Amino acid sequence: MIRDLFYKYIVGLYYDVPIEIYLVLIFAFAIGLFLVLKFSNDKKHFRLVPKLLLIEYLALLLCSTVLFRTESKDVRYSVEPLWSYESIQYGHLELIAENVMNVVVFIPMGFLLGCSFRKMRLWKVFVIGICMSATVEGLQFYYKRGFSEVDDVIHNTIGCLLGYCAFCILTWLVRKYRTQGNF
Prior knowledge:
The chain is mainly α. The protein is built from seven helices and two strands, in the order H-H-H-E-H-H-H-E-H. It is 75% helix and 3% strand.
């Protein structure tokens, strides 16, 4: 049952985005990657690749959550923090999948922020996560696309922080194994 809810959420998130948008994003990334490989003589230029991926991710995120999402008849929102947990206690189990997926959807952003900007710090990722999520929720509210809620901002920010923590752990492991001569 929970697996079906996750599948429904993922399909619903990207269902309305036209295939042409995916093709344009893939083509734009391929051109950017080609340019980096063609004109880079220095390894520092390869740091542009995560930035390209971050731009692609943000474009897909906005397409799937705002631009191509079906418009509602009225504005739907909730400003009550963590209301979904109370609803889950009363049997609305579909909110479990929605909360988890709101975390998962923002994990790539935190990871790519770490990859793209070497001097990035946890508090900056926190602020960027809140700002990006609040922007998405604000646009959803303004354009009547989806359900705007504080819970989504909280869960998206947690996902962004988890992605950044995963990047930090991976970086630490790579450094550890390099100094031991295993890499």
